[in-house]
Design brief:
Blueprint (H helix, E strand, L loop, with lengths): L3 H11 L1 E3 L5 E3 L11 E2 L1 E2 L54 E5 L5 E5 H7 L1 E9 L12 E10 H7 L8 E6 L14 E4 L1 H7 L2 E6 L2 E2 L9 E3 L12 E7 L7 H5 L24 E12 L2 E11 L8 E4 L7 E2 L2 E2 L7 E8 L5 E9 L7 H4 L5 E5 L3
Parallel strand pairs: 5-14
Antiparallel strand pairs: 1-2, 3-15, 4-22, 5-6, 7-8, 8-11, 9-10, 9-14, 11-12, 11-13, 15-16, 16-20, 17-18, 17-21, 19-20, 21-22
Length: 379
C-alpha cells in the first residue's frame, strides 16, 4: 500500500485524488455522493451538498468533506459552508457604512473604502459552525484565504483606543423570523482576545471581494474561534464598559461554545476557541489477494499549536494507536491524515480520534462528538 507521502503527493501533483483501486475523481466532480470504493458512514443525516438551500436565517450550504483533496484544503467560495444567508433587507454594498462608537456613545461613520485602502493578506483561516455535527455530515466547516484589516487598527483609524473597555462588533441582521433561529448578530470581545487572535475585518476571500452570503462588504474573522463569533455584514463597532451585558448571540450560542452556563455579563464568557479536533472524512477500500484493505483519511484542525500524538481506535474495547501518516500543520487551517486499517472481522466499527497529550484540552473529542461509524459486510 502507498505511504501517505506517495499517496497524497501523487494526488497533489495530478490535481486528482486516486482512490485505492477505484479510479479517480477531480475536485470539480459533483457526481454521486457515495463513490465506488468508499465505505459510507452510517447513522448520519443526508444533506444537500454544495448548494445554497433556503434563505436568510434558514440558509445553509454544506461542504462534502468526503471529497477533500490536497488541492481543496482552501475551499472555493462557491463551496464554502453557509450557516446564515444574507438578510432580506440587506442594504447595497455601495451604501455601506460602519458606525464606530466611542465610550460616550458618539458615532462616526467609517467608510469601507478607507478599510479597502489598508486591506492586506491575513492568511488562511478555518471557520467551523458551532452547531456543526453528524446531521450535516460535519460539513459546516471550511477554510479560506482572507484579506482584511485588524479590528484594533480600524479603531485607531477613527482615533480610538479601547483602553479598559470591551469591543462590541455587530452586523446587519434584519431577517424574516424562522423557527429556532434568533436575529441579533453581535459579540463582545476583550482587547486581550482581539490581540491574541489577531481578529480582523475581512473584505476579501480567496482573492476576490467577499461574496454576498459571506458578509459583503465586511465581516469579522476571529482566527481559532467558532464562526458564531465571526460576525457577518459588520455595520457597527462600539466601545462598551467592562460590565456590559452579554449579547443575545452570545447567550444563544453559550452551550455550543462551551460556556459555564449562560453568564449575564460579557466579561464572564470564555473565549469561543475551537479545541484541537480530528475527524475521519472517508474510509477507502480495495481488494487485495483474497480479502480487502482499508485506509481511513481524515482531517485535523483547531487549537493554538500543531497537534502531535494523534491517535485512532475502531472499537471501545480496542486500544488506540498513533495515526500512521500525520504531519502536524498550522492549526489555523486544517491538514489531511491517513491510516491503514485491517479490521479483524466484518461488523460495525466506530472510529474515534484523540490527542495523546494530557496538557491539551479536547472537549468535543473527549465526548466522541466527531466519532463516525461504518458497517463492513465483508473484509
Amino acid at each position: 500500500m502507498l505511504s501517505r507521502r506517495a499517496f497524497l503527493g501523487a494526488s497533489a501533483s495530478s490535481g486528482t485524488l486516486t482512490l485505492l483501486g477505484v479510479g479517480a475523481f477531480t475536485a470539480d466532480d459533483d457526481g454521486a455522493r457515495e463513490l465506488p470504493g468508499i465505505v459510507p458512514f452510517v447513522g448520519e443525516g443526508d444533506p444537500v451538498f454544495g448548494e445554497l438551500t433556503d434563505s436568510g436565517l434558514a440558509a445553509r450550504r454544506v461542504l462534502d468533506l468526503s471529497r477533500l483533496t490536497p488541492d481543496e484544503l482552501v475551499t472555493r467560495n462557491a463551496r464554502f459552508f453557509v450557516r446564515t444567508g444574507p438578510p432580506e433587507r440587506l442594504p447595497r454594498a455601495a451604501d455601506w457604512r460602519i458606525w464606530i462608537r466611542d465610550r460616550a456613545g458618539t458615532a462616526a461613520a467609517l467608510p469601507v473604502d478607507r478599510l479597502r485602502a489598508l486591506a492586506r493578506p491575513m492568511g488562511a483561516h478555518l471557520l467551523e459552525c458551532s452547531g456543526n455535527g453528524p446531521h450535516r455530515r460535519f460539513g459546516l466547516l471550511s477554510a479560506a484565504r482572507w484579506t482584511g484589516v485588524p479590528v484594533l487598527e480600524a479603531l485607531a483609524l477613527m482615533g480610538l483606543a479601547p483602553g479598559d473597555h470591551r469591543v462590541l462588533v455587530s452586523g446587519f441582521d434584519e431577517h424574516n423570523p424562522v423557527p429556532r433561529s434568533l436575529a441579533g448578530a453581535s459579540w463582545i470581545f476583550s482587547v486581550r482576545d482581539l490581540v491574541a487572535t489577531g481578529a480582523f475585518l475581512a473584505l476579501g476571500m480567496n482573492g476576490v471581494p467577499l461574496p454576498r452570503e459571506h458578509g459583503t462588504p465586511v465581516r469579522l474573522i476571529v482566527p481559532g474561534w467558532y464562526a458564531c463569533a465571526c460576525i457577518k455584514w459588520v455595520d457597527e463597532i462600539a466601545l462598551v464598559p467592562d460590565d456590559a451585558p452579554a449579547t443575545g448571540q452570545m447567550r444563544e450560542f453559550a452551550r455550543r461554545t462551551h460556556q459555564l452556563g449562560v453568564p449575564e455579563l460579557a466579561r464572564d464568557y470564555l473565549p469561543a476557541r475551537i479545541d484541537p479536533a480530528a475527524l475521519p472524512v472517508r474510509v477507502e477500500r480495495r481488494n487485495v489477494g483474497t480479502g480487502q484493505a482499508f485506509r481511513v483519511v481524515g482531517i485535523v484542525w483547531g487549537g493554538a499549536r500543531p497537534v502531535h500524538g494523534l491517535t485512532i481506535r475502531f472499537a471501545p474495547d480496542v486500544g488506540s494507536v498513533l495515526v500512521e501518516d500525520h504531519q502536524p500543520a498550522n492549526p489555523q487551517t486544517w491538514s489531511l491524515w491517513s491510516h491503514a486499517w485491517r479490521p479483524p472481522q466484518p461488523g460495525r466499527y466506530t472510529i474515534r480520534l484523540q490527542v495523546d497529550d494530557p496538557g491539551v484540552r479536547t472537549r468535543r473529542l473527549d465526548r466522541g462528538f466527531y466519532d463516525r461509524t461504518v458497517e463492513l459486510e465483508t473484509i
